[in-house]
Design a protein that fits this description.
Elements: E1 2-12, H1 15-44, H2 52-64, H3 76-94, E2 111-114, E3 121-123, E4 128-131, E5 135-139, E6 148-157, E7 160-170, E8 181-186, E9 192-194, E10 199-200, H4 205-222, H5 228-262, E11 265-269, H6 273-281, H7 291-304, H8 306-320, E12 323-327, E13 352-354, E14 361-363, H9 364-385, H10 387-392, E15 397-399
Parallel strand pairs: 8-11, 11-12
Antiparallel strand pairs: 1-5, 1-7, 2-6, 3-4, 4-5, 6-7, 8-9, 9-10, 12-15, 13-14
The protein binds zinc ion.
Length: 401
C-alpha cells in the first residue's frame, strides 16, 4: 500500500526570493485568469471549450508574445499546473461538486505548485529545499519528511510563505487494532453522536470569535484605505481569521483521530453537505426559498466543517486499516430501533425520540446513530455475500487498498 502525505513548513526566504515568489504567484494567477477569460469568451461565441493540451500551446504563445514576455521569467511547470487547476475547477463544476470557476484575486490563495519531483531537491540535514528558478530556500524544519517527493506547493498566508511537500512511500497493509464498528450521526446541537452512546460537543469556533471579528472589521472600515492604520487593522482581521481556522483544524483533527483509533469501521450518513448548503442559497435569479430558515443551520454546518471531518475520518481510517462506509440517509431519524416502526410522529421535537408504537424513548441523535450503524451492517452484508450484485450496484464503500 502506497501512503501519501503532505508536510507543511514555514519558509525563510531571502528578500530576493520573496519577491520572486510573489511574482511567480502573480504569473500563475494571470495564466489562470487569462485562460478562464478565454474559455468564457469561447462559450459566449458558441465555440467548444479548449482542452488542457491546447491551453498549454496557448501558454507557449503568450510566453513568446513580446507583450507578455515576462511570463517566460516564471518556471513553466507551475504555469501549466494553474491550467490544470482550471481544468479541475471546470470538472468539479460540471459534476456538481463546486460553483463555476471564479477569477483569482491578488492576495487570495496566493500559491503555485511544482509538479515535477525531478526538479526538486530536499536537503533535510541543512533545512533547505531547492526549487526551480528560486534556488535553495531555508525552511523551519519541525519534523523529518519520509518517502519520495511527489510535488511541492508554495503558498502565502498572512504575509508568511509556506512550503507543502507531498511525498509517497510504501507501507505494509495495516491491520486495524480495534474490532469494533460504530455509527455516527452528525448534528448541530452535538457535533457527532456515536451509536455507543458517547458524543462530541460542537466547537462553533466561528461564533466564539465572531464578536472579536466584528469589532476588528468595524475598526477596519473606519480607517482610510491603504493607510498605515488600515494595514494594521487589516492584519488584525486576518489574524482572527487564521486563529479561527487553526482552532477548528485542531478540533477536527482531534475528533477524527480519536474515532479512527477506537473503531475499525465507521458508518456515516451519505449526505451531500455541499448540496445542503447550496440549496438554501439558491441562485441569483432564484434566491433559495428557505434562505432564512436554513441559513442558521448552514452556518453551523460550514462552521463545524463536517465535510472536512468526514474527509479526515476516511483517510485516517484507511491508514490504520479500517474503513469509512456511507449509508443512505433514509429514515435514520424516524425509525424505532426497538420495534422498527417508522413514522415522523416518532420525533415529537428535534431532541427527543419517542416511538408511537412501542413507547421506546431516547435521544434523537443517538437513535439516528444506532439506525445508521444498522443500515451500514445491512449494506455490508448484502455486499459481501453476493459479489455479482455488488458490481451492478456499487456500494459507497471506501477502503484501504
Ligand atoms: Zn418502537
Amino acid at each position: 500500500m502506497r501512503r501519501r502525505q503532505a508536510f507543511k513548513f514555514r519558509l525563510e526566504p531571502k528578500r530576493q526570493q520573496e519577491r520572486q515568489m510573489k511574482f511567480f504567484a502573480g504569473t500563475c494567477r494571470y495564466v489562470f485568469n487569462r485562460a478562464l477569460a478565454l474559455q468564457k469568451e469561447r462559450y459566449a461565441e458558441g465555440q467548444k471549450k479548449l482542452g488542457y493540451a491546447e491551453l498549454c500551446r496557448r501558454l507557449t504563445q503568450w510566453r513568446h508574445d513580446p507583450e507578455t514576455a515576462w511570463l517566460a521569467e516564471a518556471p513553466i511547470h507551475p504555469l501549466q499546473q494553474s491550467l490544470k487547476n482550471l481544468e479541475r475547477a471546470y470538472a468539479n463544476f460540471f459534476s456538481g461538486r463546486a460553483d463555476f470557476p471564479r477569477f483569482r484575486k491578488k492576495g487570495k490563495q496566493d500559491s503555485f505548485r511544482y509538479p515535477d519531483p525531478r526538479q526538486i531537491r530536499l536537503d533535510q540535514a541543512n533545512n533547505r529545499i531547492f526549487l526551480p528558478k528560486l534556488g535553495w530556500i531555508r525552511y523551519r524544519k519541525s519534523r523529518e519528511v519520509p518517502g519520495q517527493i511527489r510535488n511541492v506547493t508554495v503558498s502565502q498566508s498572512c504575509g508568511q510563505w509556506f512550503v507543502s511537500i507531498q511525498t509517497e512511500w510504501e507501507v505494509a497493509p495495516p491491520v486495524h487494532p480495534s474490532t469494533t464498528d460504530v455509527g455516527i450521526d452528525m448534528g448541530v446541537v452535538r457535533f457527532a453522536t456515536l451509536s455507543d452512546g458517547t458524543y462530541i460537543e460542537p466547537l462553533n469556533s466561528f461564533r466564539r470569535h465572531e464578536k472579536a471579528l466584528r469589532k476588528a472589521q468595524q475598526a477596519l472600515s473606519r480607517r482610510k484605505k491603504f493607510s498605515s492604520n488600515w494595514k494594521k487593522a487589516k492584519t488584525k482581521v486576518q489574524r482572527i481569521h487564521a486563529r479561527i481556522a487553526s482552532v477548528r483544524r485542531d478540533f477536527l483533527h482531534k475528533a477524527s483521530t480519536a474515532i479512527s483509533k477506537n473503531h475499525a469501521i465507521v458508518f456515516v450518513e451519505d449526505l451531500n453537505i455541499r448540496n445542503m448548503s447550496r440549496s438554501a442559497r439558491g441562485t441569483v435569479e432564484h434566491p433559495g426559498r428557505n434562505v432564512r430558515a436554513k441559513s442558521g443551520l448552514n452556518k453551523s454546518i460550514l462552521d463545524q466543517g463536517w465535510f472536512e471531518f468526514r474527509r479526515q475520518l476516511e483517510y485516517k481510517l484507511a491508514w490504520k486499516g479500517g474503513m469509512l462506509v456511507a449509508v443512505p440517509p433514509q429514515n435514520t431519524s424516524r425509525a424505532c430501533p426497538e420495534c422498527g416502526h417508522t413514522a415522523p410522529e416518532n420525533r415529537p421535537d428535534q431532541a427527543r425520540f419517542c416511538c408511537v408504537q412501542c413507547g421506546f424513548e431516547g435521544n434523537a441523535d443517538l437513535v439516528a446513530a444506532i439506525n445508521i450503524r444498522r443500515a451500514g451492517h445491512a449494506r455490508m452484508a448484502c455486499g459481501s455475500n453476493d459479489t455479482s450484485r455488488r458490481k451492478q450496484e456499487p456500494a459507497k464503500v471506501s477502503r484501504a487498498t
